[in-house]
Design brief:
Length: 618
């Protein structure tokens, strides 16, 4: 039965694995694409950052990347190298040179079959065609980029929405322009990206100026200018200054406009080619037109148009020049510029352009609907696959329950037999456990009795040791008392001898006339005095037994002490007073004080220190 059970479980496992494989197989290619895009993005994230924040290392890094790509010969690396070269040239406003590099990047991207770089190049094509005023083609490439970046790369999608908003503004479709700007701002709310926000504020100000919300436009442009200056983004600084000067002309603040233009002229004359400087001259023309200085206005307009050509960015200036010539009565020149204005306007906003854009939008809308339909179909298939897997799992579950039910009786029978065996085993184990418990209790009682005996023995030993220590202490006290008595006896002998010497001295002083008798008395006194050193040796012997380390420690700490000074210290250790010490040493109180003073100096004692206490502590 165990074999059948194992076979059933293996079959069930295979069914579940097959279901999961069937459910997730359609997602495998999408996961691979996602990983590939993630890898390519992470590889070039540093370059994106250098370009975005206008790093001084940008030019060197682009050249290095390009040389490495040429060495490798890899199509994808060459595509990215040319792409970043285009972006770096755009930052420097080298618009005339980017077309060739962009075509190279497009060629290599097709060879590499990498969707991410293709979408990035489509975006740059959109920027290039927008610069040329070919807005229908610009929208085409922006739509291609948007189609890829949606649900894949929000940072790039923000850039696409901003450029779509700007393109629709130049096509005078303010509604769609604002819609795309709003989409970009919605994505930026969840990101810390000050540069992208500043770019959006700059481009959106065009809509605000069109709607005559001048204060709102000014706030956005001034905030963006501070951001670009903080990141040293020269191109965006110049573009923002252009828009600020246009705004000030719109609001008839000519002096403020000139202030911005002077700052702009200083930057562009150092950083860019003559083409960008032409845009500055055209703004000067607008300012002097506003101020009524028509001659200077015409002069600046001509200088600007010579440098910029008739690109869409400033094509409305042609209308201003035409109006200006009408005012001063030069009608031939006025009609000439008016014709140029209408030609460019028709190429940008003509009916044919709008028809192409409408056709392209319809085509893109159709593709979006088809894509949405495809997504819905895939979603429906996924749901159906999920339902199918759920149903199969339910069927498998029912079969499994049935299998369990058919084996229930046999399992119960086996369980009954095993229960009986378990009961018998439990009885035997309980009996063994009971015997072990009895044995454990006996061992425990024996251990407790042994512990009690050990405790009593310990108390007895403790009591005996205490009594023995008491006897030793009593014996020590008795020995100390005997030695003290012996020392006292020696001291008395010394005192009596000194008294005898005093008496001899008195005899000599009183019997100076009888020389023979005096000589006899002196000899007796000297003979008796010779035994003084023996008495001192007996005293020293007893002192060493009472204080064995005193002399050694004293001489070790203070080796300069004389013999007499050491004896004085020994007497102080015995706590004798000054009278007793002078009598024992047979010296005067003055001599004793002098000796104590010498001892204090050699011990380096201060006036507040007590000599007797120091001697007692040694």
């Amino acid at each position: 039965m165990k074999g059948k059970h194992k076979v059933f479980l293996i079959g069930l496992f295979l069914i579940v694995v097959s279901l999961f494989f069937f459910f997730f197989k359609n997602k495998e290619s999408k996961v691979r694409d996602s990983v590939a895009v993630s890898n390519s993005n992470s590889s070039y994230a540093n370059m994106d950052s250098l370009i975005k924040y206008n790093s001084p290392e940008l030019e060197y890094q682009v050249k290095f990347l390009y040389s490495k790509a040429l060495e490798s010969g890899d199509s994808l690396k060459l595509a990215y190298a040319n792409y970043y070269k285009v972006r770096a040239d755009t930052k420097k406003y080298k618009m005339d040179s980017i077309s060739v590099d962009l075509d190279k990047a497009f060629y290599f991207s097709k060879s590499s079959k990498n969707s991410d770089i293709e979408a990035r190049i489509n975006y740059e094509y959109g920027v290039l065609h927008g610069y040329r005023g070919e807005f229908d083609r610009s929208l085409k490439y922006f739509f291609l980029a948007k189609d890829y970046f949606e649900n894949r790369n929000e940072k790039e999608l923000i850039r696409v929405y901003i450029m779509l908003g700007l393109t629709y503004f130049y096509l005078e479709n303010i509604e769609k322009s604002q819609l795309n700007f709003n989409n970009a701002r919605s994505l930026l709310r969840s990101k810390e990206d000050p540069v992208s926000k500043a770019v959006l504020d700059t481009q959106e100000s065009l809509v605000f100026v069109h709607e005559k919300e001048f204060d709102r436009a000014r706030v956005g442009l001034e905030s963006a200018l501070k951001t670009f200056e903080s990141f040293n983004d020269t191109l965006n600084v110049t573009y923002t200054l252009l828009l600020l000067s246009d705004l000030e002309v719109k609001t008839e603040r000519s002096e403020k406009a000139i202030e911005y233009l002077d700052y702009l002229y200083e930057i562009t004359s150092k950083s860019f080619n003559g083409s960008f400087l032409g845009h500055v001259f055209l703004r000067y023309g607008d300012v002097y037109y506003l101020k009524g200085d028509y001659d200077r206005a015409i002069a600046y307009y001509k200088r600007g148009l010579e440098r910029t050509g008739d690109y869409h960015f400033d094509f409305k200036t042609l209308k201003n020049v035409s109006d200006l010539y009408f005012k001063i009565g030069k009608y031939n020149e006025a009609y000439h510029y008016l014709d140029r204005y209408h030609v460019i306007k028709d190429s940008i906003q003509g009916k044919g352009v709008f028809n192409r854009i409408e056709s392209m939008e319809n085509e893109y809308s159709l593709k979006e609907r088809e894509h949405e339909k495809e997504l819905n179909t895939q979603k429906y298939k996924s749901q159906m696959n999920l339902y199918l897997m759920f149903i199969i799992l339910i069927v498998v579950g029912i079969l499994f329950v049935y299998f369990l039910y058919t084996n229930k009786k046999k399992s119960l029978y086996i369980a009954t037999i095993e229960n009986k065996r378990l009961e018998e085993k439990m009885k035997k184990e309980n009996e063994i456990q009971r015997i072990r418990m009895e044995q454990y209790e006996l061992e425990l009682s024996s251990k407790e009795e042994l512990h009690i005996l050990q405790k009593q023995l310990h108390q007895f030993e403790k009591s005996a040791n205490k009594e023995l220590q008491s006897l030793h202490a009593k014996q020590f006290d008795m020995d100390m008392e005997a030695m003290n008595r012996k020392l006292s006896a020696i001291n008395l002998q010394l005192l009596s001898k000194n008294e005898l010497l005093d008496e001899i001295e008195s005899v000599i002083r009183n019997g100076a006339d009888n020389s023979d008798q005096l000589l006899v008395d002196l000899k007796d006194s000297i003979r008796g005095f010779r035994n003084h050193e023996k008495d001192w040796e007996r005293f020293n012997e007893v002192f060493l037994k009472l204080h064995p380390d005193f002399q050694k420690n004293l001489r070790f700490k203070y080796p300069d002490l004389t013999k007499t000074e050491v004896r004085v210290c020994m007497y102080l250790k015995m706590r004798l007073d000054n009278t007793e010490i002078t009598s024992l040493l047979n010296i005067t109180h003055q001599s004793l004080n002098r000796t104590r003073s010498h001892v204090r100096k050699k011990m380096s004692l201060k006036r507040a220190d007590d000599l007797d206490e120091l001697i007692s502590s040694i």
